[in-house]
Design goal:
This protein is of the alpha/beta class. Helix content is 47%, strand content 16%. Strand 1, helix 1 (13-25) and strand 2 (29-32) form a beta-alpha-beta unit. The structure holds D-ribose (RB5).
């Protein structure tokens, strides 16, 4: 099974830990890029590290902050990153099928743990459809 690259700031630290626990139980390898406590830190630093590692390894990434928005804005500054901020399972599925999303962004202050884990599972298990959608993501 592939390695999942994951990171958070302090606002996403607790949800990140729940996701790591779940992913390990499912048999995934997980590489945690921090942060490592609820002490205040800067989400763009973590977004950069995870984005660069996703581009280098072609593994998928997950970024968690308070809302998921700061992480998605920061990650999408990297050419080749298609970071998707999801708060429901429909968009998690569609962003894999149509956008070949390579980073999932979640907000700990927005999405409860149970729903967040469903979003993660669907996002990881859904394949990109390719075809006309490949042409479109190549236009970005
Ligand atoms: C931190 O307070 C918060 O701003 C951050 O986690 C995130 O929500 C930013 O978008």
């Amino acid at each position: 099974m592939s390695t999942i690259l994951i990171g958070s700031d302090h606002g996403g630290y607790n949800l990140k830990n729940e996701i790591i626990k779940h992913l390990k139980e499912q048999g995934y390898e997980v590489e945690d890029f921090g942060c490592y406590s609820t002490e205040s830190c800067d989400y763009p630093v973590i977004a950069k590290e995870v984005s660069e590692a996703v581009l280098k390894t072609a593994n998928k990434g997950i970024l968690v902050c308070g809302t998921g928005i700061g992480m998605s804005i920061a990650a999408n500054r990297f050419d080749g990153i298609r970071a998707s901020h999801c708060t429901d399972t429909f968009t998690a599925r569609m962003t894999r099928m149509h956008n070949d999303s390579n980073i999932l962004c979640l907000g700990e202050r927005i999405t409860g743990t149970g729903l967040a884990i469903d979003i993660v599972d669907i996002w990881l298990k859904t394949d990109f459809e390719g075809g006309r959608h490949l042409k479109r993501i190549n236009m970005i």
